[in-house]
Design goal:
Distance between the termini of chain A: 37 Å
Distance between the termini of chain B: 41 Å
Number of strands of chain B: 11
Number of helices of chain A: 0
Strand content of chain A: over 45%
Radius of gyration of chain A: 13 Å
Number of helices of chain B: 0
Radius of gyration of chain B: 13 Å
Shape of chain A: globular
Oligomer: heterodimer
Largest sheet of chain B: 6 strands, mixed
Number of strands of chain A: 11
Order of helices and strands of chain A: EEEEEEEEEEE
Helix content of chain B: under 10%
Structural class of chain A: mainly beta
Order of helices and strands of chain B: EEEEEEEEEEE
Largest interface: A-B, 26 and 22 residues
Chain lengths: 115, 111
Amino acid sequence: KAGVTQTPRYLIKTRGQQVTLSCSPISGHRSVSWYQQTPGQGLQFLFEYFSETQRNKGNFPGRFSGRQFSNSRSEMNVSTLELGDSALYLCASSLARGVVTDTQYFGPGTRLTVL
Amino acid sequence: GEDVEQSLFLSVREGDSSVINCTYTDSSSTYLYWYKQEPGAGLQLLTYIFSNMDMKQDQRLTVLLNKKDKHLSLRIADTQTGDSAIYFCADLVDSSYKLIFGSGTRLLVRP
């Protein structure tokens, strides 16, 4: 079974631009979560989607947004990029069979560099 | 709020056992996880433990959970150079479907 895939793997943008990152979950998984990883802040939760609905959001500004499609694929968008948005963005998928989200499996990440 | 803490660095000799420790604050933890991250890569799930368990063994990996002290540990037996990586402890916050991660422990295995 294929794992979580993320595209693109690397991205270079300039301040003020916007960017869209894509995540395809493991087949059959319905929940997709996004995390930001930086040397200073570590791994921080961005948001989680299930059945095309955002169930929870972390403490990030409104410039960070996401969506999920009917096939469970997800995209996240960052508008008006700032230097501090440079990070590894990780996507995780899980089956989400019930009330408690089960094990999250991570993709390889998208490395975003903002110049 | 919920918090997870880990020591930053551990160095062991090849063939020895490694023990990575983690403490958490969440009183309603259901699952606790260990992930491994190699340079330039995403997070690889190593193992997890349900909160009503004290111990879980999976080949070379042993997870111990002391729920009273909110302490979790990962023991790697017969540590190999390929085990050199950053290890993250993570707590699943039941009410919000998110993982709270520790800062990661960098494990260096010396030949």
